[in-house]
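Risk register update: the risk of archive-format incompatibility is retired. Evidence:
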Amino acid sequence: MKQAKPEQPSEQLLYQQDGHKVTLTLNRHDIRNAISGDAMIDAIVAACARINRDKTVRVAILTAAGSAFSSGGNVKEMRDKEGMFGGTAAEIRDGYRHGIQRIPLAFSQLEVPIIAAVNGPAIGAGCDLTMMCDMRIASENAVFAESFVKAGLVPGDGGAWFLPRVVGLSRANEMAFTGEPVNAAKALAWGMVSEVVAADDLMTAANALADRIAVNPPSVLRMTKKLIQEAQTSSLESILEMSASFQSLAHQTSDHVEAVNAIIEKRPAKFTGA
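Archived output:
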């Protein structure tokens, strides 16, 4: 495994690659990693596009600096009617469509598996951001709240689509209608996260999961993720057809040949993406 690449730091979002893994770190702990500002939105969307272009990337981790994962929208800007929260109703609608709603679209188009390493409170759009990820590991300090109703708002960034697919309709309704927080233990019981660990062990656990994913063939990982995504909204017939097409491509790869030989020869496989 090659050494971590030095990356130019971004004020909003840190991007670091270590071999086949990329770690994205929300880096505005001074505002509890709010994600409603244009700079943060642009940084997240650009990072997703960068990962898709880089075929050496097999898995990503999303985490945050400071004590909070993300507070979602900047409540001071809401109060002052600034940024995406200012203007007429039509202007606010366009602000959402061309602003924060670009994030769920970027995550829906992200080709590699991504793990949310949730270090602290994930509130409102911050909660939804974790739901956009494929897997979630939580620190004992993590709290999840679909709290838009507490601010007199509706889930404006896709939470109404993502949350029920993760926790089921009844629990999603409970979270959205009450706005009440769910702690890490309950999140684990509800299947919202797959693991809860001590705060100091969070990134170790996230990297361990990422390593278990990154050992696999990169093109097959991307196709598998696409199949699972499409299966959420497509018919069985459509998914079977797509699966047959993807499988025909997988059978022709050098990585498939290497995988079969490694199984027969009882040795670790080495995949190249070919």
